[in-house]
Design brief:
CATH architecture of the largest domain in chain B: 3-Layer(bba) Sandwich
CATH superfamily of the largest domain in chain B: FAD/NAD(P)-binding domain
Order of helices and strands of chain B: EHEEHHEHEHEEHEEEEEEHEEEH
Shape of chain A: globular
Oligomer: heterodimer
Order of helices and strands of chain A: EEEHEHEHEEEHEHEHEHEHH
Largest sheet of chain B: 8 strands, mixed
Number of helices of chain A: 9
CATH class of the largest domain in chain B: Alpha Beta
Structural class of chain B: alpha/beta
Radius of gyration of chain B: 20 Å
Number of helices of chain B: 8
Amino acid sequence: MLELYQTALRSRLLLGTARYPSPALLTAAVRAAGAEVVTVALRREAAGERAGQGFWGIIRELGVRVLPNTAGCHSVKEALTTAHMAREVFGTSWIKLEVIGEDDTLQPDVFGLVEAARLLCAEGFQVFPYTTEDLVVAERLLAAGCRVLMPWGAPIGSGRGLNNLLGLRALRAHFPDVPLIIDAGLGLPSHATQALEMGFDAVLVNTAVAQARDPVQMAGAFARAVEAGRQGRTAGPMEPRDWAAPSTPVLGTAFRG
Amino acid sequence: MTLRVSILGAGVAGLTCALELVERGADVEVLERGDGPGPQSCSWFAGGMLAPWCEEEHAGSLIRLLGEESLPWWERQCSATVQRGTLVVAHERDHAELRQFATRTHAHSSCDAAAVAGLEPDLAGHFQRGLFFGAEAHLDPRRALAELVCRVRARGVTLHWQAEASGRPARGRIRLDCRGLAARDAWPALRGVRGEMLLLRLPELNLTRPVRVLHPRLPLYIVPRGAHTYLLGATQLESDAAGAISVRSMLELLAAAYALHPAFGEAQILESGCGVRPALPDNLPRVRRAGDTLYVNGLYRHGFLIAPALARRVADYLLEGQRIPEVMDEDRGERRLA
């Protein structure tokens, strides 16, 4: 079981809720993924009081745990405002914290991120920071009170998979006991498998599913890929070798003429 | 016996139904809360792109089908219809968007830089690649609404402006509810999707057809409205707030337009506006019957694109008792009402 802030979860696939062709397809994709956690952006929808109720109602009816996020926030102040709004709208202290530093790569502003995480943790929020694979930033986030980290695989929506394998391996090795969720940049189910095989605890996927030609089928594919990666990890993979090792013993086979 | 119909709402859904029904022999009246076609209806802020093949990319084949069927209707019924196709482009670094769009749509041809320049000379040198959807068309929604009003009136339809939609329909009359999001009182699954637009005037530029600029975050379309004016749209926000355009949305739309052509820097902003489109959970249109009332709703961002095809089906159903399973749940067991 995956445990995030004392919440036990069976599914290691978290889904984003943006950019689906329709809410009906979003609902079907969440079911097909077997996701128990979905993340929801608050910023744009909340143009006015109750303005986003139509969509939020659909999210609530999914009956899964909601992880609100601060997508699109560029400053600590914006992120805090959004987090407060999220707590009120969804009645949860969970917050996926994004503080964007650069518009083209949507790269996190790690300085603002650490600061916002510190303030939110002090207020009792349970913070899921969207960060890079940087070890030092990870240390600072943990010191700020985060108990889960969400390193990127590649820039948001790029579908590139795990960009920096060395960095991500180091992060995993450095924090063996911290739940690490790969957030952003996955494009294919095999990317998710790879992340789980490397020992990451879960993945969060949005665009790869929402923008697939058939989001529901892709959601199912990711669910199986995550399961395969996890089982592959726990089953204890063999070590790669430099030379062939016959899988059937040669001893006792007939002599060749 | 003549079918007598009271239509609620004089947006594009209500007026196309009125024209289709009266032309096919029904006795029609229209009740509208505003004092004419106007900003109380999201049709007022529509882009007016008759683009079934482009919209199929995210909306699926039903919308393409209804849109294709509606094109000749507009050409027949509305002099504001211009058939010059749609040009879809993307900036160099966003070519992945263009490739994906091409694989998910039909009825387009690929354009190189010369072909883009041939179609829209003012875009020469700005785009290396594009897609041309030659059979698509566009219209000015406000002109189209005005024209529909004239046509239905000429056919003897009474239009009641500033009318309240209360109580039961008069005896012997079918009520056709085309109120869009205002019908949420009777159809709770309806939600609003906010779309913001800008109207610009720019004499230096001459674009002759809708241009769509694909972008992972800030997609844009520009529709020529004649007299050097252009409509810029449209944001898609899960919100039913009808308030003024936000600074962020305006910045995004204008930045995208400026990136399309720097001449937009000199444009005058004539108008900004916002329509809240009525959508059902699958973002597809639906016809639904409850007693003497028939609801036509959920046209989402496809009002002008598909309204004639829906109107035809409504008339088929009311006048000839035909089944219309593609849009009517009662005719389609498996499509559960949300």
